[in-house]
Design the sequence.
């Protein structure tokens, strides 16, 4: 017990040292980008604006767009609230909601500082999927108040994209909103990440010729992304008993006392039946797949060398991954993916959420179902054809124009099949 506690303390210290070092290197490497970003936002006053779809050139134009003409759609919607999807912006509008508690890798920096990130997310929606998205930064981190605020603004939107909300609070907020609202709600840090990871894994398995159900998997990070990835993999057919999860306190196992919460307690009962303790060094021996959604520099080349033949490494900590892709390759990993744009196989959430919402909104969906998420992952994987597939190309490029349409089509179909889609509103309009 003494050695385990000591190793956990060492891990905490290493986590803190790595974060400090990563921050310094990030500042050095990205200094020019930071200055350009500041200058652009100062010059433009942010990166987002509201645009009108019509021009008000005459009194008649004004009368049709506003009063008295606007009274008729109001009467129609009053009689059937679903007609808001037909007569207003609702069908193609998403709220990007945060409380500023877990912004990028910057932590709990609050709603004002989170606004530039939410603006950026909104322009990705617009540029990639032609969806109108609006940043909503809430000045509260109380779970009940966040839920109330989102419910109060929901009538204006066709979907809710929760963003940068810390774990484990994000799990309850999303679960409650999914239950209490009649429209799609997704915490992108969870499900968007899981969809992209699984799509990359599907193609990787074609190359290494392994079966998902037989994989020994190690996940570093048991926050929003790590938990969602675990749940997604199990739903897809992975054996939970063959999955090991680790955080700053070490490996998760039933009966662990430090750093636990209800979500970790739930997962601990499904995984690590042998109650293996310690850190990633113990876990990675003979592992087929490593998924990192934690912090940089916690995986060594020796750890990768200890993995199984044809190992897959998905090291997604940003800006410094758990192990640098070239180091993982040098250590023998067959396929390496990362969150960075300067290496092959970038696992970027923008590959999933624009198409996922476009498909859901196209059917005026009441919710995002597991079937819709799974359809998104398979469609994303299939964008990479068999002829294009290689160790350095298991996931489409984030700017690939085929991605959104392929994902949206699959999600729309799954929306109808899983009974999430609303019935056609045309006859009621």
Sequence:
């Amino acid at each position: 017990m003494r050695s385990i506690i000591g190793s956990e303390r060492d891990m905490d210290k290493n986590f803190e040292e790595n974060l400090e070092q990563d921050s310094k290197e990030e500042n050095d490497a990205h200094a020019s980008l930071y200055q350009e970003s500041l200058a652009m936002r100062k010059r433009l006053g942010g990166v987002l604006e509201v645009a009108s779809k019509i021009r008000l050139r005459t009194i008649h134009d004004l009368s049709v767009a506003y009063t008295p003409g606007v009274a008729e759609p109001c009467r129609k919607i009053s009689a059937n609230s679903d007609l808001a999807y037909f007569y207003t912006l609702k069908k193609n509008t998403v709220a990007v909601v945060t409380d500023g508690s877990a912004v990028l890798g910057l932590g709990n920096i609050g709603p004002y500082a989170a606004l530039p990130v939410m603006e950026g997310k909104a322009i990705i929606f617009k540029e990639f999927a032609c969806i109108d998205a609006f940043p909503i930064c809430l000045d509260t981190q109380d779970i009940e108040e966040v839920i109330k605020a989102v419910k109060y603004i929901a009538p204006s939107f066709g979907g809710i994209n929760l963003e940068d909300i810390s774990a484990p609070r994000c799990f309850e907020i999303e679960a409650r909103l999914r239950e209490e609202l009649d429209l799609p709600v997704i915490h992108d840090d969870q499900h968007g990440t899981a969809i992209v990871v699984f799509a990359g894994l599907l193609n990787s398995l074609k190359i290494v010729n392994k079966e998902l159900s037989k994989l020994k998997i190690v996940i570093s990070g048991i926050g929003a992304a790590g938990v969602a990835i675990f749940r997604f993999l199990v739903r897809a057919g992975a054996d939970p008993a063959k999955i090991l999860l680790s955080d700053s306190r070490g490996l998760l196992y039933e009966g662990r006392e430090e750093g636990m919460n209800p979500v970790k307690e739930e997962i601990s009962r499904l995984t690590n039946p042998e109650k293996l303790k310690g850190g990633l060094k113990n876990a990675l021996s003979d592992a087929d797949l490593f998924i990192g959604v934690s912090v940089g520099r916690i995986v060594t080349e020796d750890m990768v060398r200890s993995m199984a033949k044809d190992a897959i490494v998905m090291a997604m900590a940003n800006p410094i991954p758990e192990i640098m892709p070239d180091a993982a390759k040098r250590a023998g990993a067959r396929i390496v993916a990362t969150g960075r744009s300067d290496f092959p196989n970038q696992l970027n959430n923008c590959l999933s959420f624009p198409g996922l919402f476009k498909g859901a909104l196209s059917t005026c969906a009441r919710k995002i179902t597991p079937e819709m998420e799974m359809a998104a992952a398979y469609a994303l994987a299939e964008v990479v054809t068999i002829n294009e597939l290689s160790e350095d190309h298991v996931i489409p490029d984030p700017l690939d124009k085929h991605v959104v349409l392929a994902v949206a089509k699959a999600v729309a179909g799954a929306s109808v099949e899983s009974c999430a889609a609303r019935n056609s509103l045309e006859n009621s309009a």
